[in-house]
Amino acid sequence: MKNNKQVMKQLENKTYLIWKMAFASALSWEIAKLAGSNHPYLAPISVILCMQSTVNQSIQFSYHRMVGTIIGIGITVLLSPYLQVNGWTLGLLILIGCFIAKWMKRDETVIHQLALTVLLVFVMEHKSHDYPIDRFRDTLIGAIVAVLIHMLVNPPNYTKQAIKGIHHFSDHLTMKMNRVANWIEQGLDHKESYVLQVEVKQLLQELHQMKNVVQDAEESLTYNPFANKTKKELQGYKEKITLLTNGYTYITIVIRLFLEWAEAGTISSSHKLVWAEQLLSLTPIFIVTDSLKPLGEKIEVKISPDFEPHRYHITLYTETLSLLNQTNVILESKN
Questions:
Q1: Rounded CA gap, 191 and 108, in Å?
Q2: pTM surpassing 0.85?
Q3: CB neighbours (10 Å) of residue 133?
Q4: For the residues 101-115, what does the mean pLDDT come to?
Q5: Are 223 and 151 in contact (CB under 8 A)?
Q6: Which of 169, 174, 177 is CA-nearest to residue 252?
Q7: How far apart are CA 266 and CA 212, in angstroms?
Q8: Which residue from 25, 107, 275, 326 has the least number of CB within 10 angstroms?
Q9: How far apart are CA 113 and CA 75, in angstroms?
Q10: Angle, in degrees to the nearest 10, between helices 108-125 and 87-103
Q11: Which residues does 98 contact at the CB level (< 8 Å), separation at least 6?
């Protein structure tokens, strides 16, 4: 669920996007007219299409649009003089152009922009012979204006949202580890284990969402000339994300192993107490702070000295069992 601050921030970003899109559209129209275009509306079309959520996305879309436009204009100008304007010849030109783009291993966005260019140039060239050059020039003007306005006027920055997401996930993960520790200590209740498994699955969704927001934040800073300090701040959280991911993986394994141990009927009260304390001692690792400072005291595995001579045997047994289980799953899926 999004809190009020996140909703307000999204509304604020949309407001800035609307203002920038309107200003850039007007500016690109006037520049296109000054450049001698008879179709200045083509420049604002590029602005509206190219102004994406982040500057990086805007640059990528602008590049793909220009590539599609250039290929589309070239093919149409070369072949349209020999073709009549009707649906079948239009389809033929789009087919040829798109397969050329595919042969050139271009992005799907290029294919869409190429098809659109072929349509408009093919129809409009027969009415206005200067349309192809206007199409190229005004598309370029619109793309450049969109990127520059987006980059220089309050460029998008999602770092705060990303950091908040990391802190929220950290809080939820440590709370879950405490709950799992209590569940172990209090006897591995079956109903509680079901609830924990459901909540851990929800935690996985939150982990993916957090990583997506961090990726958006990184993209938003790629071509942001005012964000050097923010880039360093976000980079400092990379190790924390790795720690949190490791923590999530660990907690899922712990729940599964204790369920299997309980079903085997070989777990004792002392085992439960030792591992519950062990789990509680691990939670400080996953508390996100402003810096990755070492913990006050070194955390070690709290296990009975009697098991120490057997730890390599136990580890090899566990890894071998995991390998065989994965192998059996693959073999059964083929039968």
A1: 49
A2: no
A3: 15
A4: 92
A5: yes
A6: 177
A7: 42
A8: 326
A9: 13
A10: 150
A11: 111, 114, 115
Residue given tokens 């006050």 in the structure block: 296
Nearest-5° Cα angle at 15, 11 to 19: 170
Q: Stretch 231-239: mean pLDDT, rounded? A: 82
Q: Write the Ramachandran bin of 150: left for phi over 0, alpha for psi from -120 to 50, otherwise beta.
A: alpha
CA–CA gap between residue 323 and residue 55 (Å, rounded):
45
Query: How far, in Å, are 77, 177, 274, 278 from residue 184 at the CA level?
Result: 74, 11, 10, 11
Type of residue numbered 229: K
CA distances from 148 to 55, 67, 221, 226 (A): 9, 19, 14, 13
Q: Which residues contact 295 (CB under 8 A, 6 or more apart)?
A: 284, 285
Q: Does residue 294 have a pLDDT over 50?
A: no
- CA 81/CA 246 separation, integer angstroms: 63
Q: What does the pLDDT average to over 278-303?
A: 71
Cα torsion angle, 260, 322, 205, 290, sign: positive
* Whether the Cβ atoms of residue 255 and residue 177 lie closer than 8 Å to each other: no
Q: Which has more confidence, 119 or 295? A: 119
Name the average pLDDT for the chain.
86
Task: Tell me the C-alpha distance between 221 and 160, whole Å.
Answer: 12
Mean pLDDT on 304-330: 75
Sequence length of the chain is 335
The pair phi, psi for residue 290, each rounded to 5°, is: -70, -15
Quickly state the pLDDT bin for 232 (edges 50, 70, 90).
confident
